[in-house]
What we know:
Blueprint: E1 6-12, H1 14-20, H2 23-31, E2 34-38, E3 53-57, H3 61-73, E4 78-80, H4 83-87, H5 92-101, E5 110-112, E6 116-119, H6 122-125, E7 138-142, E8 153-157, E9 170-174, E10 181-188, E11 191-198, H7 204-207, E12 214-218, H8 231-236, H9 247-261, E13 265-272, E14 279-287, H10 297-337, H11 341-345
Parallel strand pairs: 1-2, 1-3, 3-4, 5-14
Antiparallel strand pairs: 6-9, 7-8, 7-9, 8-12, 10-11, 10-13, 13-14
Helix pairs in contact: 2-10
The structure holds adenosine-5'-triphosphate, Myo inositol 3,4,5,6 tetrakisphosphate and magnesium ion (2 copies).
Amino acid sequence: MEERRFCIGYALAPKKRHSFIQDSLVSLAASRGIDLVRIDTERPLLDQGPFDCILHKFYGEDWRKQLVEFRVKNPNAFILDSPDSIERLHNRISMLQVVSELKIENPDESFGIPKQIVIYDKETLFDRQAWEGLKFPVIAKPLVADGSAKSHKMALVFNHDCLNKLKPPIVLQEFVNHGGVIFKVYVVGQYVKCVKRKSLPDEPEAKLGNVDGLLSFSQVSNMTPREKIDDKYYKMMQLDDTEMPPLSFITDIARGLQRSMNLNLFNFDVIRDSKIGTRYLIIDINYFPGYAKMPGYEKVLTDFFCDLAQKKEALNNADKKKDVEDKIGCDQETRKIGSDEDGGGQSVDREKKETTVQD
Ligand SMILES: Nc1ncnc2c1ncn2[C@@H]1O[C@H](COP(=O)(O)OP(=O)(O)OP(=O)(O)O)[C@@H](O)[C@H]1O
Ligand SMILES: O=P(O)(O)O[C@H]1[C@H](OP(=O)(O)O)[C@@H](OP(=O)(O)O)[C@@H](O)[C@@H](O)[C@@H]1OP(=O)(O)O
Ligand SMILES: [Mg+2]
Ligand SMILES: [Mg+2]
């Protein structure tokens, strides 16, 4: 009998394609019956395939429409992840709202988000009342987090004097001292992996020198050594000495977020408050992050794809069984109704299948 293969079409921007689709991943997946096939986003999706699953980090109205059409034609295929679920991560307020709504019972650790406000216009930026309760330094982050270079442009703000340089809409988030180390938690379906990365130093104003009230930066944890804000500081930093957060606590948060956001592929950034060593703050959530930086990413992703293949198989089998049952049911009905034409030709109203994968 011919081997049944599971075909995943991927639609990724060039940068992501180069980092994620590595030979090591493609060959491991292929050896376990999974084919990774590039989707040509310049051509209609429905002209390509067939695909059992679509993996995408690609935006735009046209792409959304194409996914809707694909879903109608392929109700048993998976779309990772649903554009509606991803959408929430494109706004830094809605992104962290899910964290605030999350309830996790844990006697030893607590979690939340830093104090923050959203500013839509210059006028409000200078309105001291709007700042009430917010302490300097703050980090100004673009409200929109759509993956553009602009959306990663941050600024550390130390006082009111340089507010003119900020461009709303922005989120102003209190800077929390956290020992210069950030925890990145990668989620792939049920899999959760927490790693350490370098971050901004505690008391940045003192550590980074005279910074004129405002210091701009972008993607600190991705920086190459040449770009680091203060190389001496990073040399001094002993990343290895930093204790990891309790894994079960992090896993609980990851699973909670996954459930409420209905996403399979994301990561989130966590910092530990230096003042309250058991308090963790979630500062960022990213859709389809740089998984290739995760140790052993090929196996993790391949295992996840294999799980999908099994789920798809189960769906197909359930459909086949239903078809047989319907056919039998239908034949009996036809026999009962006799010559009633409508009775025999009824189509089955199929249960709407979710394209995201939940256990
Ligand atoms: N409230 C905060 N307190 C202290 N440091 C922070 C805070 N918010 C952000 N940072 C630092 O700034 C960096 C960038 O912030 P953030 O993660 O929100 O930006 P991003 O551009 O969305 O990052 P990514 O590349 O992970 O998508 C963080 O990795 C962390 O080092
Ligand atoms: O490749 P992309 O453009 O998707 O970049 C993503 C980047 O992954 P990369 O390592 O592949 O650059 C991620 O890094 P890690 O959190 O894993 O460190 C994170 O910075 C995301 O925010 C970026 O997504 P964006 O916010 O820009 O959509
Ligand atoms: Mg981040
Ligand atoms: Mg981000």
